[in-house]
Amino acid sequence: MSLLTRILGGTSDRAQLQPLYGAVVAIGRDPAWYRDGQVPDTLNGRFDMIAAVLALVLLRLEREDAREVRTASALLTELFVDDMDGSLRQIGIGDLVVGKHMGRMMGALGGRLTAFRPAVAEPELMRAAVERNIFHEAAPSADAVGTVAERLLEFARGLRDTPVSALLAGEVPRA
Prior knowledge:
By secondary structure, the protein is an all-alpha fold. The chain has nine helices and no strands. α2 crosses α4 and α5 (67-90) packs across α6. The longest helix has 27 residues, at 95-121. The N and C termini lie far apart (33 Å).
């Protein structure tokens, strides 16, 4: 029996990863990001935080060598795509431009993966990654950047110490 099958109860269906994706979204929507970290409480700001949290989870999964974990990572990304697609349609974005928006969103997720990968390994790089990927070079203050950067690093450390089986089951550390 594969690791993913054991963890997810006999199926690799992405719906089984919904608890993990739900936890990612809940962390990204935590009011402390917007209050203490001064992340803009807008659609774009919320997307930025959900994408940042998801990127850190995907980076954690990337450390595992098991094929099943790579599959889970792809399925988790599909849940993100479905969620973002649904959100765009819900706010009135038409079929003709949803694909264009989705392409930008996936590019943004990829950008966070690229920026956060070295920042997790070398924490002094996280402030610059947060400034570019959360605040887009227009941070309200150095303290806000520091707050968000430290909290993301704390989350990444918690992910590092979380067994993959617990993570795939939706058990994530506090951010």
